[in-house]
Every structure is written in structure tokens, then in C-alpha cells.
Design goal:
The chain is α/β, with parallel strands linked by helices and about 270 residues long. It has ten helices and nine strands. The chain is about 40% helix and about 15% strand.
């Protein structure tokens, strides 16, 4: 780990995030799927984070990061980059915490996600995925306003917040006397899969954790094979508009390389 590198979160950070999120985030159910179970010959359970605030798991990490911003820094607000789900999570958390928010979103993000982000009270700044650097735009806005950056995935407290998905999976399986053999989660920058891996591996070290990513954007699969963070050749071009990060995060890859290590690429047709 290089000098100045943010700390790598642990399962204790995930457990602390669960306490912060209690009564704020939706504790989504773990549902048995008869159809998928019959198709696969396995017992398949689904975790419907579509029932979460703003419709995705992203609210968990955003709130866990933002609730820890000191009161003195909150009037300056937050800045985030997102194609939609993290945008809405940050905007919702900002509204709950009484903070202004600016979200840097690509022009080709779904109009519904842009509209919902604005409806939650955030300001939206657009950019072109192919010609502009969203991180540079966000950093400039944050510097101008004195605002706090809330990364979409490569932040210890964001990862810890997303990891509460994994804690709930493990708790709900344990309540049925079960333990997982395989846990699969969608993957872009790796915040969700990293957090889930921390929670799952702490309680079921022998379980496989699999990163699922769009075909053509299999940077995790290639990174696991090479041992270094690989980049996707294109910035867009998949139905899975929320899963197009250019490369695994630096912090997330430190977690997923030893705890995950395998990935499945899924075509748009399969999605």
C-alpha cells in the first residue's frame, strides 16, 4: 500500500456502517427464486435492492460516507460523479442531511435518472464521456465551493456502506440455517462487490464471490488474470449504463483481488 493511500476497509467498518444505516436505509429482503432454482438445480436467492431508497444499493454507501462529514463542513455541500444511481443516492442522502449537492453526470445518462437527481434537490452538471474528464470537472467544482467529494466506489466508507448488502444476505441465510456457496454481484468500479466480499468472506471463508460485468467491459476479469488494474477499451456501448467504469478502483481492487478473483461477463441479450 503506497504512502497516503486511504485505509482499506474491513468487515468491522461494514458492521459500523450497518449501525449508521439502521432505520435510514431500507433493509431489503432476501427472496427465494423458484424459477431460477429450477433452471439451475441450485437454491437461488435474490437481493432486490431495487426496493432501496432511490432504487439501488448506492444510497447505502453515499449515506454512510456523508453522515460522517463534520457539521462544520456540511454547509459547503458535496460533489459526486455518476451516470445515475450514485447520483440519486448522494442527492437523497444530501436531502436527508440538509446539505447541497452537485452531481457531474454524462450527457448520455438516462433522462429519467437526471430528472430524478434534480427532483431530489441536487444540481446536475453535464459532460461528454468521450471528450471530458468527469473527475477533473468534479474536483474543480469541489475546490471552488470547498465541498466534500463523495466518490462512487473508491472510498473506504462508501465500500463499507455497500457491504451492508452482504451482511444482510448472510444474516438472512443464517436465519434459515443456510450458508452461501456462491454470491454474485454486479460490478462497475467495484464498490458493491468489494463490500459484499468483506462481509461474506468474514462469515463464510469458503464461499465463492463472483463479480458480474457487461460483456466488452470485463475489466475486472482481465485485471484478475493480469494482477494489475486493466482498462476498458471504450467508455460506453452497453445496455448496462450504470456498469461502465473505465477500470476497477484502486481500493476496491485491493479487496477484490484476494477475496473475489473471478468474474463473469454477461451479454446485453442475457441481461
Amino acid at each position: 500500500m503506497s504512502l497516503g493511500h486511504p485505509p482499506i476497509p474491513t468487515v468491522r467498518d461494514v458492521e459500523a456502517a450497518a449501525r449508521r444505516l439502521a432505520g435510514v436505509a431500507v433493509r431489503t429482503p432476501l427472496l427465494f427464486s423458484p424459477v431460477l432454482s429450477e433452471e439451475t438445480g441450485a437454491r437461488i436467492f435474490l437481493k432486490p435492492e431495487t426496493l432501496q431508497r432511490t432504487g439501488s444499493f448506492k444510497f447505502r454507501g453515499a449515506y454512510n460516507r456523508m453522515v460522517q462529514i463534520p457539521q462544520a463542513d456540511r454547509p459547503a455541500g458535496v460533489v459526486a460523479c455518476s451516470s445515475g444511481n450514485h447520483a440519486q443516492g448522494v442527492a437523497a442522502a444530501a436531502r436527508l442531511l440538509g446539505m447541497p449537492a452537485v452531481i457531474v453526470m454524462p450527457h448520455d445518462a438516462p433522462a429519467l435518472k437526471r430528472d430524478r437527481t434534480r427532483a431530489l434537490g441536487a444540481d446536475v452538471v453535464g459532460y461528454d464521456r468521450r471528450t471530458e474528464d468527469r473527475d477533473a470537472i468534479a474536483r474543480a467544482i469541489a475546490a471552488e465551493r470547498g465541498a466534500t467529494m463523495v466518490p462512487p466506489y473508491d472510498d473506504p466508507q462508501v465500500i463499507a456502506g455497500q457491504g451492508t448488502v452482504g451482511l444482510e444476505i448472510m444474516d438472512d441465510l443464517a436465519a434459515q440455517g443456510l450458508a452461501p456457496h456462491v454470491v454474485a454481484a454486479n460490478t462497475s468500479g467495484g464498490g458493491l462487490i468489494a463490500g459484499v466480499a468483506l462481509a461474506v468472506k468474514a462469515r463464510a471463508p469458503g464461499a465463492r464471490v463472483v463479480a458480474c460485468e457487461p460483456a466488452g467491459f470485463d475489466d475486472h476479469a482481465r485485471s484478475f488474470r493480469s494482477g494489475v488494474r486493466e482498462r476498458n477499451p471504450e467508455p460506453s456501448g452497453s445496455f448496462c449504463d450504470a456498469l461502465l467504469a473505465p477500470t476497477p478502483g484502486a481500493i476496491t481492487f485491493e479487496i477484490t483481488r484476494p477475496l473475489v478473483g473471478e468474474a463473469a461477463a454477461v451479454s446485453d441479450a442475457e441481461v
